[in-house]
Amino acid sequence: MTRARELGVPFEGRPGPLNAITDIAGVEVGHVTLISGKGRLEVGKGPVRTGVTAVLPRGKTGAPVFAGWYSLNGNGEMTGTTWVEESGFLEGPIMLTNTHSVGVVRDAVVAWVLEQRRANPAAADIFWSLPVVAETYDGGLNDVNGFHVKPAHVFSALEKATTGPVGEGNVGGGTGMVCHDFKGGIGTASRRLANEEGGYTVGVLVQTNYGDRRNLTIAGVPVGREIPDLTPVSGRAQRQDAAGSSIIVAIATDAPLLPHQLKRLARRAPLGIARVGGMGANGSGDIFMAFSTANPHAAQDNALATLEMLPNDRMTPLFEAAIFATEEAIVNALVAAETMRGVDDTVVYALPHDRLRQVLKKYNRLV
C-alpha cells in the first residue's frame, strides 16, 4: 500500500510513528471488505463493492470516552449523536458503511455489545445501546439496494479490529467510494505535538466520497485542473454521477479534553477538507466525531470522578493537528485507492501516482 508521503507529497506538521489514528494508544481499527460479481446490476446479486469499518476508541473493552460531534452539511447519517451531545460520552465503536446498511450495522453492534456483556459475569442484566454508525453512498459502484452487509460482517470487523497499521483505500466501508472523481475510500493520518505544546497526539480516519475534480487541491497545487481526464465512466445508457458526495471524519486524541472542547476539535475537520477542495455541497453528508482517550474513569457511576482538562488557551495546536491530519488522511485515501469496476461496468480510476508527482514537481512542491 502506497502512502502520500512516499510519493513526495509535502504536508504540514509532524506525524506519529504510524501516521494513523492508531497512534492514539488503545484505538483499534477493523475492516471487512466485500467484493464480488461483475457486469450488469442485478439487485440482490451484485456486483458487490462495499463493506464495513470499525473504530474502537478503547479497544474491545468498550469503556466510554468523552466525545463531541459536528455536522457541516447534514445530507447524511450518523446515528447515536443525540445521546453523545446530551451525555458527552461515546459509549462504543464508530462504525462506517454504505448508506443503506446503516440499520443492519447498528443492530449488529447492539448484538455484539450484548454478547460482550454476557461474557462478563459482573455486567448488569439490563442493557441498552445507541450505537454510532455513519455512512456514505456507494451506489455508483455497488449494488447498494442489495443489502449485502450482514451482521456477521459487522461482528468480523469488530473482532478483527487491532492496533498498528491501518488499511486504506478500497477497504471496509470505503470499498465503493469515490473522491473528487477519483477512486476514494478509507484514509488515516496523525500529528504529534511538540513537547512544549504538551506532546499530545491527534489521529484521524476518514471515509471519503465527496468532491468535484476541478476543486481537487493537494499540497496547494490544483491537481484536479492539471489532471482533468480519467473521470468516472458509466456503462449505463445514461451516465449517472458515480461520485456521490459525503465524508465522515473520526478524530481521536490523548489530550485531556472535555466534550465541549471535543466538539470544538470536530469543527476543525472542515478546514482540513477545504484544503483538499471540499466545499460542503448541498447533497453532501459531512459529519464528524471527535473523542479523547484521556480521563479513563470519567464514566464511573459509583463515585465522584476527578478529571483533567486542557485549558482552552492551549487548544490551538490541537486544532492545527486535526486540520493537517484530516488533509493528509484524505490524500492517503486517494493515493492508496485502486481503479475499480463496479455495477454496469462503471469504472472509477485511481489517482495516477506518476502524474501526481509530475504536477507537484511543476509547481515546485515535490519533496
Share of helix among residues?
10-25%
Q: How many discrete structural domains?
A: 1
Tertiary shape: globular
Terminal CA distance: 19 Å
Strand count: 14
Radius of gyration: 20 Å
CATH fold name, please?
L-amino peptidase D-ALA esterase/amidase
Unreliable stretches (pLDDT < 50, length at least 5) are 237-243
Physical arrangement of strands within the biggest beta sheet? 4-3-12-11-10-9
Indicate the proportion of strand residues.
15-25%
Number of helices: 8
In CATH terms, the superfamily is: L-amino peptidase D-ALA esterase/amidase
Architecture overview:
- The protein is α+β, with helices and mostly antiparallel strands and 367 residues long.
- It has one domain (4-299, 306-362): L-amino peptidase D-ALA esterase/amidase.
- It is built from 8 helices and 14 strands.
- It has helices at 81-87, 102-118, 151-160, 223-226, 259-266, 269-276, 316-336, 353-362; strands at 28-36, 48-60, 65-74, 89-90, 94-98, 132-136, 178-179, 182-183, 185-192, 201-209, 246-253, 285-292, 340-341, 347-348.
- The strands form 4 sheets. The chain has a 6-stranded mixed beta sheet with strand order 4-3-12-11-10-9.
- A hairpin with a 2-residue loop joins strand 7 and strand 8.
- It is globular and about 60 Å long.
